[in-house]
Structure formats: C-alpha cells, structure tokens
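Record type: monomer structure entry
Structure origin: computed from sequence
Chain ID: A
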Amino acid sequence: MNKKNRALILALIFIVVAIVYLEPRKIESIPEKDITLLETESSEPQAITQKNSYSLAPELTGITGYLNTDEGLQLKSLRGKVVLVDFWTYTCINCLRTLPHLIDWDKKYRDQGLIIIGVHTPEFEFEKKRENVEMAIEKYGIKYAVVQDNDYATWRAFRNRYWPHKYLIDAEGYIRYDHIGEGGYEETEIKIQELLAEIGSKVSGVSIIEDTTPRQRNTPELYAGYKFALPRGQNIGNEEGLQTEKVVEYELPERLQKDTLYLQGSWKSNSDNVEAISDITSLFLDFTAGSVNIVADSLNDISLRVDVLIDGNSISSAQAGTDVQFDNGNGFIVVNEPRLYNIIDGEYGEYSLELKTKKGFTLSAFTFG
C-alpha cells in the first residue's frame, strides 16, 4: 500500500470517529429516581446527596376496595403532602393498639398536610370481605383513607413482611422513615412534624404522644389453622396433632405444656381455623399475660355462647374482657361475627384458660397483651 492510500484510509477513520463522538448520546432507560436527580444536579447538589439514601415509594397497586376515599387513589397524586402508609389488618392486636395513635395524628395533622392511608392486607380469608373491613373502620372510628390490598400486590411492591408496618413518605414521594410493629410513637411523630415543617406547616408547638408500649413477656401469638400454625411450629399439644382437613376426636392429656393450645372433643382442622364439630367441645391454654383475645367466628350466621373459665372457675368481673357478659355469675362471650374478641383483661400473670363451646364455633388465633 502506497503512502497516498494509507493517508486516505487514516483520514476516513478520523472522520468516522469524529462523527460518532459528536453525535448526541441516547439515554436508554433511567429510573424515575435517577431522572429526578439528573434534573436537580446543577441547581441543588445537596438535595441529591440527601435523596441518594432514600427510595421513591412504590405506587398503590392491585387495590380491590377504597374506603373513606375516592376510587383510584394514587400516591403520585399526593405530591406536596406528607403521606403515612400503614399496613394493617383488623384482627391483628398489634395493629389495633396502634390505631389510637394513627387516629390522633390524623386529627392533629390532617389540616397541616398529613395524609394517612391504611393499607388493609388480610391475614385470614374473612378479612377480605369489604363489609367486615367497613365494620372495623366504624367500630374503631377510623376517618382516614383505607384501601383493600386483598391480593398482597401493594404489600409486595413495598417488600413488606409485617403487620403493622408504617412508612412515612415526604412531599417529593420518597420514603424517609419506617417503623415495624408497635411502639416508636414519639419517634414517628417527631418525624411527621419534621416532614411537615419541610413543606412550611407550623407544627413546632404541637404536643407529642408518649410511648406507652407494653414491655412484659407474654405468651406469643398462637394460630389454630394449619396453614398458619404448622409452618410456625405451633401444632396443638394433643398427641393427634392438627390433621389437615380431617375431623379428629381429641382427648386431653394429663399434663399441659405452657403456651400451647389443646383441644377436647370433635374438631376439624381447616386452613384458617379449627372448627368445633360436636356440641360439647373445649379449648385449653396455659398462658402468661394480662389480656387475651381470640380471633373467632360462628358458622351459618348463628350466635354461639362460649363460656370463659380461668384456673377452673368462671372468669371474674375483675378479669373479664370487654366482650364478656355474665349470667348468674358465669362469664361468657357471644360469637356472632368474624372478628377479634377480648375475653380477658386483668392483672398480668400465669393462668390456665378453658373455653367451652359447641358445634359451629371456629378459632383462628390467640393474641396476648
């Protein structure tokens, strides 16, 4: 190859490289968060550093019902507001104990720019029914928005695993704080005030609720349905154990272990609950707590009496929960709808509980406080 041809080839290579280099670059796919950062890079470099540690909140998705709010509620429509997303379900005692705080925050800060959205993600099948959620909203005096996440779509979008779980979202849509379980009320409210102050709300003089979360060791939450109990290692204490979708005649052993549920009589093991099949049935539990609740229901729209005995005697008025009634000194509850029933509310200690019931009664879980 002569010098002339070599020079021509080098010139062509130079032209091609120059065209490639000078042609505008194409951004293939930048997530929404990154686009926001690029837009603010030159004017607000400090904001970029701050937001790098936060994630944009995922959108409400797969919602099957809207209560106390308009259909199609979306988080992106609430930009400029501070949003608190609370994952809950109406038979979860830990969720119910947080409700007074949420209701108080709604009253105190709604006009200051706080929007609370309760994402109701059901644990049991009956909690998917709109009328049951409506009943709970009315019972507990919830005025803020509640959406039904029956298929766990929003739960998965947030990568959530817990009830209750609160997320605080700032005016730009970023998750700035989250808290799992009960407690942390002072910390959460301080953060609410901080985010509201960022949008110009005057909240510096508003008093903050003190944290009153119980700290005693209680019997852990116990499930009765095989779908929930068996994966958690919470089989009943009877030798026969829970037998999937089968009816078993249970006998009570001589000794009962603490924090373990025992059955007596004929019971069927269902995925969500254990179901009384005979008219003379009982449940036994040695527990440690001051308050006891059951998630229960009755089949065929009937009202069932369930007698409550503590240490072999009918429950006293001093220990009776809010759902206990008395007939000639005998304490009992009436189960007529799927919900949480408070059966004991007394002094903290170790006790033996017996519930006497009959055919049609179903038990899904025990919770303690």
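Annotation 1: The helical segments are 3-22, 32-40, 45-51, 93-109, 130-140, 153-157, 185-198, 226-229.
Annotation 2: The first strand starts at residue 55 and ends at 56.
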